[in-house]
Every structure is written in C-alpha cells, then in structure tokens.
Amino acid sequence: MLTLEPLRPDHAEALLDFERTNRAFFARSIPDRGDDYFARFADRHAALLAEQAEGVCRFHVIRDAAGVLVGRVNLVDLADGGAELGYRVAESATGRGVAGAAVAEVCRLAATAYGLRFLTAVTTVDNPASQAVLTRNGFELGHEFLLGDRPALAYRRELTDLADPADPG
Asked: Which of 39, 60, 76, 151 is 20 to 30 A off residue 53, Cα-Cα?
C-alpha cells in the first residue's frame, strides 16, 4: 500500500536523505541536481512549500506501507488547465510498481482535486522504465528533444476520463 502526501515542512529531513541516498542512481537517467541543491536544501524546501501555498505547484512524497519515504511525484507550473509531471523513486523501490501507482494517483488528483485537464512529462531516451510508466498511465508520446545534452522524449496525457462527472467544468 502506497500513500501520497502533500509536501510539508516536516518532510525535509527524510526528503534530503532520500535525495542523497539515491543521487548516483538518479544521475544515471536524469541530469544531476548538483552540489548546490544539497548545500541549500533547506532554502529549496522552503521555496517549494511557498510555491505550493501559492497554487503554482503541487508537490507530494510517496510512502510505502511501512511509512518510509520512497519517492516523490510533483506537478509543476500549473497554468491554463495543465501542469508538468515529474517523479522519482528510490532505487530500493524500483521494479515494484511504485512509480506507476504514484503516477496513476497523481493523475487522479490532478483531474479531481486540482482541476487540471492535461499533464505533460519528459523522460530521457535511455530511461525505458520511465517511458513504460508514462505509457501505462495513458501518456502519449509527442516529440524528441534535448534535455541538457541528453536526448529526451515529451509526453502528454489528457485527463478528461478522470474528471469528476458531477463537475461539468
């Protein structure tokens, strides 16, 4: 059983530990956050909470059945009925359906709780696991581009099938 929790101030320590523990693992498939991210983590966490309070972004942590933080899934740049999806799962939690379940849940939240109509996402070409998560969750491949210096793929998911039928808007 997984749970998604909106990002809170008390997540900071566990989230920093998650990012440090998995830094090398993440860097194999996505651009590294850099040393400054870790050195200024407290400031960055506070900034994310402020963005969330303003309604610009929706950040979530993923906890496993034991309550351990095993990932994060975020919706950034909420505007014009859409947002960009981003997620990362601990190396120790890969291959267990964590990313797929978290993405499915955040898609549901995006449509029903946040009033979004579509999501976009990107992944590097050399990350077939992430591509599979997106495809299984109804994202359609758009185009290829460069993410930094790495070939990447852009995806989009319409959320109309998840919208609340009681809400005509």
From this structure: 39
